[in-house]
Design brief:
This is Tetratricopeptide repeat protein 33. By secondary structure, the protein is an all-alpha fold. Helices cover 79% and strands 0% of the residues.
Length: 198
């Protein structure tokens, strides 16, 4: 019976100089390799930075096009599609307060007041000095039934931009009249309880 086994080659055909070249590399070659590696690393780092900058620009341009598509859908009263496009845009660039504010307005049109409040609050957290976001938050709070909170939000909007007549003529008067009605209703309820059957 024949058995199979690996035959080991002898080093007869290999010269001593060739064998020693594989045992220890010369010192000069190592420094050359290090220089080559550091140069290569710098090239790759520069390429990575350029690629990252390109991707950021690509994200910004894609986000802008998604925002424009969302605006077109909102103008066509296709509100759910607009919200979807703006959500995609916010995944790419989440720090755009204008998109959050537009989303809040559309969510109010869909009668989704709590998500509208959240979106308006996000817009305010990004840009606290933007009066339009405060106005949108006040309107969403009114839709949710938070009259006192809406009064505070509209007051902030007026404080930030007192020259806007719409804030004074429409929003503040509307909120003030609802606050007055609520106080009268609460007063009437408290009187009816105190003078009730007894």
């Amino acid at each position: 019976m024949n058995s199979f086994g690996w035959k080991r080659k002898s080093n007869r055909n290999v010269s001593a100089d060739s064998a020693s070249a594989f045992k220890e590399p010369p010192v000069a070659d190592i420094s050359d390799d290090e220089e080559m590696m550091s140069g290569t690393t710098n090239i790759f780092l520069n390429l990575a930075k350029k690629r990252k900058a390109f991707l950021l620009e690509d994200n910004l341009s894609k986000s802008d096009s998604l925002v424009k598509e969302g605006v077109a859908y909102a103008e066509a009263e296709r509100y759910e599609e607009a919200v979807r496009k703006w959500d995609e845009a916010l995944c790419l660039t989440p720090r755009k307060s204008k998109v959050h504010e537009m989303k809040a307005q559309v969510l109010m049109e869909l009668n989704q007041m709590f998500p509208a409040i959240q979106s308006a609050e996000t817009a305010i957290s990004i840009d606290p000095n933007w009066w339009t976001a405060h106005q949108t938050l006040a309107r969403a709070q009114m839709g949710f039934g938070q009259v006192e909170m809406a009064q505070k939000s509209i007051s902030r909007a007026i404080h930030l931009y007192p020259a806007e007549k719409e804030l004074w003529d429409q929003d503040l008067k509307w909120i003030y009249s609802l606050c007055k009605e609520k106080k009268q209703r609460d007063y009437a309820e408290s009187n009816s309880m105190s003078t009730g059957p007894g």
